[in-house]
């Protein structure tokens, strides 16, 4: 039995829930949610997505027109953890109103994630073009 499988078994015995979603960081390991729903972890890379999102500093507020530099990979990681949390809440809920709200929020986050990928791809393309022009 591999290390992740052993950890998953141990966590299940402690009352954790194995979710149907895998780690958004590509570990191909199912996410685990604590009984009190205060932790959402990948046992493959030992990441607690809820704790990680909570430990990030609050977004900076600026005067209108001022920009804030934020890494798209940081934003993507936060969006991925939020999508994973929403997926677990969708599985848990039996309320149609709550389900509708969660699905709407998930759709918006997925659109945001897609736009982050588009920005990242354009940036990578521009970098390649600049390097090509220099050489």
Taken from the alpha-carbon principal axes, the silhouette is: flat
Q: Catalogue the unreliable spans.
A: 122-135
First-to-last CA distance:
51 Å
Determine the strand fraction and express it as a percent band. 5-15%
How are the strands of the largest sheet arranged?
1-2-3-4
What would the average pLDDT be, to the nearest integer?
74
Q: Total number of β-strand segments?
A: 4
Helix run count: 4
Oligomer: single chain
What is the domain total for the residues? 1
Radius of gyration, whole Å: 18 Å
Structural class: alpha+beta
List the helices and strands in order: HEEEEHHH
How is the biggest beta sheet arranged? 4 strands, antiparallel
The proportion of residues forming helix, as a percent range, comes to 55-70%
Summarize the helices and strands and which ones pair or pack.
Elements: H1 3-13, E1 17-22, E2 30-33, E3 40-42, E4 47-48, H2 49-55, H3 72-92, H4 96-134
Antiparallel strand pairs: 1-2, 2-3, 3-4
Plain-language structure description:
With 135 residues, the protein is α+β, with helices and mostly antiparallel strands. The chain has one domain (3-57, 68-134). Helix content is 58%, strand content 11%. It has four helices and four strands; from the N terminus they run αββββααα. It has helices at residues 3-13, 49-55, 72-92, 96-134; strands spanning 17-22, 30-33, 40-42, 47-48. It has a four-stranded antiparallel sheet with strand order 1-2-3-4. β2 and β3 (40-42) form a beta hairpin. It is flat. The relative contact order is 0.11. The model is unreliable at 122-135 (pLDDT under 50).
């Amino acid at each position: 039995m591999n290390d992740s499988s052993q950890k998953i078994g141990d966590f299940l015995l402690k009352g954790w829930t194995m979710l149907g979603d895998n780690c958004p960081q590509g570990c191909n390991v199912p996410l685990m949610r604590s009984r009190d729903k205060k932790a959402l972890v990948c046992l493959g890379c030992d990441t607690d997505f809820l704790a990680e999102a909570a430990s990030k500093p609050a977004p900076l507020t600026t005067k209108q027109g001022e920009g804030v530099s934020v890494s798209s990979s940081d934003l993507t990681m936060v969006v991925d953890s939020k999508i994973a949390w929403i997926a677990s809440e969708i599985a848990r809920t039996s309320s149609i109103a709550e389900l509708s709200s969660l699905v709407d929020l998930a759709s918006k986050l997925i659109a945001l994630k897609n736009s982050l990928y588009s920005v990242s791809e354009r940036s990578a393309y521009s970098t390649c073009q600049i390097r090509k022009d220099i050489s």
